[in-house]
Amino acid sequence: MAYTIYRWDDPGAPAPLNGQSNANTLINVLDACLVNGYGAKAPAGWSKPFTAASQAAFCQGAGSNGFYLHLDASPLWHDKVRGYESMTAIDAGTNPFPTVAQRSELMAPRSNSSDASGRAWLVAADARRFFLWVNYNGTLAQGLGSTSWQPSFFFGDLESSNSADIFNTLISGGLGSANSSYMGYAQNSASNTEYMPRNYAGAVGSVTVMKGTHIPFQGSSQIGAVATSPAFPDPVTGGLLLSPIEVFDASGCVSRGVLPGIWAPGHNLPGNSGDVLTGVNGPLAGKRLILLDVASSTTRARIALEIP
Hints:
By secondary structure, this protein is mostly beta strands. It has one helix at 26-36; strands at residues 4-7, 47-52, 55-59, 68-72, 78-89, 92-97, 106-109, 121-125, 129-134, 152-157, 169-172, 194-198, 204-213, 242-249, 255-265, 276-278, 288-293, 302-307.
């Protein structure tokens, strides 16, 4: 999975995020990462066809379903987000996901405070999707290593063996001004913060979806927080046990694909947030992965993200 990794501490990167309205928003970060690039980092290949005061719409790039993500940067603490199958203006789109009736306000994180304190961010992106991680109430000095709230956001196409599924674009956000991170939760429970534009059969209308792992001994709902699990490092392979994270229609449990380049550890919070490991067997042999916390300090969850 060849994501480009963009970080707040790259030379020439956009400023760290903060919680002020219209200041250092996700629009600034995504404009640099997805559309224009910065410093030595090339852009991921998206476009930004529509803008207005405090708003922007980004469109997926080559090889994608070509759907749109609308952001509204006017709230404190977070950006409001919604997907659309198509758009003709900043305030005109068809087949939104989620619909307003499903979720009046889905959010992507910036900060847990409305002041100008900077928050570290990381974006992993290609032309079809991106993943956002934010150290929501940590300090810049903590970087990736805080165990405080570390919410995430995902928008884009899943990897699927069903080439006929041209609506397998996922939006995964949070709820409320204090944010909640559902990227870190799995085990076949619809979160009501994760949506696709249509179901597996292509019927018009946004649908809720849910995630699951392939870890048979995972009893908890948190990814990477498996209380009854092998020790880390794994006593057999000497490495990190990993599972794909699969996404299903909440109705009927039909698989829509997996989150590309994002893996579920088969251990109980292995390593530390920010650790970089190398795969030792199977499809990840020789690949580098970074561990990231993706939930709260009390309800912990941890993923492994493929990096160059």
